[in-house]
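Deliverable D4.2, example record:
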Amino acid sequence: MSDDSNLSLLLRESIRRPPDNSPETEEAEPVEEEPLDGIRCPLCSWRPRPADRWGCRCGMGWNTFLTRGRCPRCDYQWHDTACLACHRWSRHLDWYEAPAKQH
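Output generated by the structure prediction step:
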């Protein structure tokens, strides 16, 4: 395993809005986000959602699959990614499913 596996990982951070307490609004049901298409943990098959966050050693928290493993703050390229479900590390590129073949 690479040195990436020895770095701290910020587990799940969710983007949450403060509640709107204005009297004229009704309380909305929580919306379940759909998992990202074509991305799954190669070890347990868990699928990340857009609001899932990983942390870089520079302190940046973001969804690593929106940048193919590159930190938008320090430009570090992560080669391994930890699963937020099973907490095991695997190669970042192994998370991307092969596109379906068209006939």
